[in-house]
Amino acid sequence: MENILGIDLGSVRIGLAITDALGWMAHPFKTIPRSASSVSQIAHLLEEKSITTVVLGLPLKMDGSDGLAAQQCRDFARELEEQTRATIILWDERLTTATAARYLHEAGRSNKEQKAMIDQVAAQQILQDWLDAQRSKKEFASL
Q1: How far is CA 131 from CA 12, 103, 127, in A?
Q2: 3-class SS at 133?
Q3: How far apart are CA 137 and CA 100, in angstroms?
Q4: SS3 sequence of 36-104
Q5: Per-residue pLDDT of the chain (143 residues; tens, 9 = 90+)
Q6: Fold for the domain defined by 4-141
Q7: What residues contact residue 36 under an 8 Å CB cut-off, 6+ apart?
Q8: In the chain, where are the structural domains located?
C-alpha cells in the first residue's frame, strides 16, 4: 500500500500528515514553516518517502466559493504538481482546524501544545476525511 500525504496549508505553517502502512489511518507527521522553499521541501519529502498521492486541504468559504486562501491553495497545488509526479487532490477542508482544536482541547492539550500540533492534526483530519470517503465509495459500489 502506498503512503499518502495530507497537507493543511496555512499562511504561516504547513501541517503534514501521512497514512499508516495499510492506508487506513492518517497520522500527524510534521509541521514546516511556510516559505518560498515550502514546495521544494514537500517535493523532496514525496521523493524520499515514495509518495505519489497528496491530499491538499482546499479552504473554501462557508458558502462553498473560493476566496483568496483557496486561490493561493490552488496555486500551491499547481506548483507542487509541476515539481513532482504526484497526483494532487484538492479536498474541502472547511472547519478542519476548528475540529482539530476541539480534539486537542478534549485530549487535555494546553494552548501552547495546541499551537505546536494544530496544523498536523488539521492535516490528519483532512487526510482521514478523504480516506473515509474513498472507503465509503468502495463500499457503496459493492452493494
Answers
A1: 26, 19, 6
A2: helix
A3: 25
A4: CCHHHHHHHHHHHCCCCEEEEEECCCCCCCCCHHHHHHHHHHHHHHHHCCCEEEEEECCCHHHHHHHHH
A5: 689 999 999 989 999 999 998 888 999 999 999 999 999 999 999 999 999 999 999 998 888 788 899 999 999 999 999 999 999 999 998 766 667 667 666 767 666 666 667 889 899 999 999 999 998 766 555 54
A6: Nucleotidyltransferase; domain 5 (3.30.420)
A7: none
A8: 4-141
